[in-house]
Amino acid sequence: MTGGAVAAVDLGATSGRVMLGRVSDGMVSLEPVARFPNGPVEGADGLHWDFSALYGHILSGLRDAVAREPALASIGIDSWAVDYGLVAEGHLVGEPFHYRDERTLRGAEAVHAIVPFEQLYRRNGLQFLAFNTLYQYVTEQGLDDIDVALLIPDLVSFLLTGTQGAERTNASTTGLVDVQTGQWDLELARRLGVPASVLPPLVDPGAHLGRLRGEAAAAVGADLEVIAVGSHDTASAIVAVPLSSPNAAYISCGTWGLVGVELDTPVVSDAAREANFTNEGGVDGRVRFLHNVTGLWLLSESVRAWEAEDGESIDLPSLLADAASVGHDVPLFDANDPRLAAPGDMPARIAAVLRDAGAAAPTSRPAFARSIVESIAAAFAGAVHTAGRLTDREIDVIHIVGGGTLNRLLCQATADRSGLTVLAGPVEATALGNVLVQARALGWFGADAALETLREAVVAAFPPERFEPAQRP
Ligand code: LFR
């Protein structure tokens, strides 16, 4: 067989979706089936995810997928990274914490008091992000009382199949995987008081996890197989970047902008640590050497605040069109300022950041939106440049994938500010990467097909759009 259909469940921080992916003779196509909202929920003890609601949406989305394509071969799950659910006696204990909850700040201090960041970086290769799982684990009260901690996609797979595992690309974001060996760093876990028993066996993307168990099969209407994909959404997205040059950089742009290059071996130099670049695990053992830039979160939170103020919804495309025609310079701010990380009144916070830097906030919403887009683009261009410097590469093109590709103003501003050609697309890179890894595991590309073969299928189906810089350096 050279093809068939699979379902990709892709959970983002602001929305989730179920997509049907079809593969036939090396060609791939995608069809949206279900889309549902996601976001932080304020609980008595902090910010959580409404995982129970998400799981309900996943089951009903899969049911719709089966109704549309009864010959569905398998399911793959990906989501944002670092967050997890605690499982005891086969059940989820409480709703998982949201990575934007403030408890992470305490955790980082506690961990670094035991293992200074310099040492930690050499072991796990991760940039400092206050929400990395290990910082969350040390704030947990009851790790000794649970059976296992499962990252969000692993938790979904467990509820669907009963199989417990830690898919490697996402496990790499916990901070407890040794960046050189790819195995759990049990010595580090012990020093931090994380019981080894909560870390499930590591699983490779492409592994067959099992079939839906009774209850899940009944809810979905079919007894399907679940296949591990690059379950960290960014890992799946990078599978579907149609890298067009060995010196290409990529930006996976959604809530976050993940800016970096693909490597075969990690870089844990002092310079990489100082620049806060991460070595996350990619599919097929590749390294995602990248930096997190606060991406469209700044815009979506601002729009959310303006909508609350107006009591009605805002049309983003027309706001961006107005932003594009702002004829004067707008002030830039540091998109990665930690004060902009938590949910809240984003325009007021950005205004405060600008004020502290001696600049006045734009007075109209289009100019404000332009200031956000230009500031994100400036951070993107800076991170691309740094990725090149740290890996000794002359970056010659930037690929942007994900929802951010719909923001043409951002794509053009990134080209202009970097002086490099931007190739934009595909927009649904994450779901595509998810589909392609399942398809390969099912033998539809040949079991040994390299990522490059999968990427050829991406270019053929979704030729990228070019944005040329106004000037080259
Ligand atoms: C993107 C992403 C990033 C990760 C952040 C938090 O959706 O997965 O890669 O750093 O969310 O999990």
UniProtKB/TrEMBL annotation:
Domain (Carbohydrate kinase FGGY N-terminal) spans 48-239
List the SUPFAM superfamilies hit by this protein, alphabetically: Actin-like ATPase domain
**Cross-referenced InterPro entries, in alphabetical order?**
ATPase_NBD, FGGY_C, FGGY_N, Rhamnulokinase
The highest taxon in the source lineage is Bacteria
Q: Which UniProt keywords apply?
A: ATP-binding, Disulfide bond, Kinase, Nucleotide-binding, Rhamnose metabolism, Transferase
Residue ranges of domain Carbohydrate kinase FGGY C-terminal in the record? 249-441
Q: Report if keyword Protein transport is assigned.
A: no
Record has ATP-binding as a keyword: yes
Query: Which protein family is it in?
Result: Belongs to the FGGY kinase family.
Q: What is this protein called?
A: Rhamnulokinase family protein
